[in-house]
Write a structure and sequence with these properties.
Layout lengths: L8 E7 L3 H12 L5 E7 L6 H6 L4 E5 L5 H11 L4 E4 L5 E2 L3 H11 L5 E11 L5 E3 L1 H7 L5 H6 L7 E4 H7 L10 H11 L4 E13 L13 H15 L11 H22 L3 H14 L3 H17 L2
Parallel strand pairs: 1-2, 1-4, 2-3, 6-9
Antiparallel strand pairs: 4-8, 5-9, 6-7, 6-8
């Protein structure tokens, strides 16, 4: 369905030098069956990204050189007008009837500030073929829990979010270059935003070497861990009673796991001083975090072997 003058939702697309994959993303969008508006925010592409997007009738292209992905998303939300928001990366695609499914769930759940579908993962192999990633799907599917929210795939692109939810808890915090989506979801969870679950895939993520967060080389592994620890540090000292059960316990387990992963990664790379500083900061935040880590490892090992 072409873009509409009376859209039921807005699809925001951040893009930068995405000519190789953008055509497939846009094709998946225009094949949807509900009236939408599309806003592509370009971060200063040097390839054919803008030309490809501009050739699709009704897609609004905003030039915003130098913007990060979350700055671009915030800008797109501000420039759109529909009452609900979906996000579409330029290297991913919507599954058939995804938007209709999300809109129907919003209509059936007027109290929900967020509707959550499932992501489906595929990977681009070294030979250029596309292969399904059933292991990633298994980890991401299921009802959202604090553990999945903090330590699973964030998959914010498989959500449909009412504009009133952004009014309530704010936009993406651009302090975080890689993990602002997880920070936003944590804020929504802590604020008690109602989430309606669809329990079916609506969005296809493409894992490839150019991805910022899901690539075989894991080039941003340490940077993501640092941002996660910065997010945790904002919430860990809070003495307030959490409105959602299980949040504090999950946060402690997440903190222990992230501190361990980052310190081990740095030590393996020879950055011993920085690794030690990570450990010291972890003790300042929570002195008993190693005990939490041991418990978490045992619980996860038992879950894997089914005992």
């Amino acid at each position: 369905m072409p873009c509409s003058d009376n859209p039921v939702l807005a699809v925001i697309m951040p893009a930068l030098n995405a000519a190789r994959t953008l055509g497939d993303a846009l094709k998946s969008l225009i094949e949807q069956s509900v009236p939408f508006e599309a806003v592509l925010v370009d971060g200063g592409s040097c390839d054919e990204t803008v030309a490809i997007a501009s050739a699709v009738p009704g897609v609004a292209v905003i030039s915003a050189p130098g913007t990060s992905i979350y700055e671009a998303i915030n800008r797109g939300i501000e420039e759109s007008r529909a009452p609900a928001i979906c996000l579409l990366n330029a290297d991913d695609s919507l599954l058939p009837d995804a938007l209709a499914t999300l809109v129907d769930a919003l209509d059936r759940n007027p109290e929900a500030g967020i509707v959550r579908g499932w992501p489906s993962y595929v990977e681009e192999t070294a030979a250029g073929a596309i292969a399904p990633r059933a292991d990633a799907d298994r980890r991401a599917h299921g009802t959202l829990t604090p553990d999945l929210l903090m330590r699973g795939a964030c998959a914010i692109n498989s959500l449909c979010i009412r504009r009133t939810t952004f009014d309530r808890i704010g936009m993406f915090d651009t302090t975080y270059r890689l993990a602002a989506d997880r920070d936003w979801m944590l804020r929504a969870w802590r604020a008690g935003v109602s989430i309606a679950e669809i329990k079916r895939p609506v969005y296809r993520y493409l894992i490839h070497d150019g991805s910022n967060t899901m690539d075989r080389g894991k080039r941003n592994y340490a940077a993501i861990r640092r941002e996660h620890l910065a997010i945790i540090a904002r919430y860990m000292p809070s003495g307030a009673v959490e409105p959602q059960p299980g949040f504090r316990a999950a946060l402690r387990r997440w903190h222990a796991a992230e501190a361990a992963m980052l310190s081990v990664s740095l030590a393996r790379g020879g950055a011993w001083r920085e690794a030690w500083n990570v450990v010291r900061r972890a003790f300042r935040i929570r002195p008993f975090w190693p005990a939490t880590l041991v418990t978490d490892i045992v619980v996860r090992m038992r879950a894997r072997i089914g005992t």
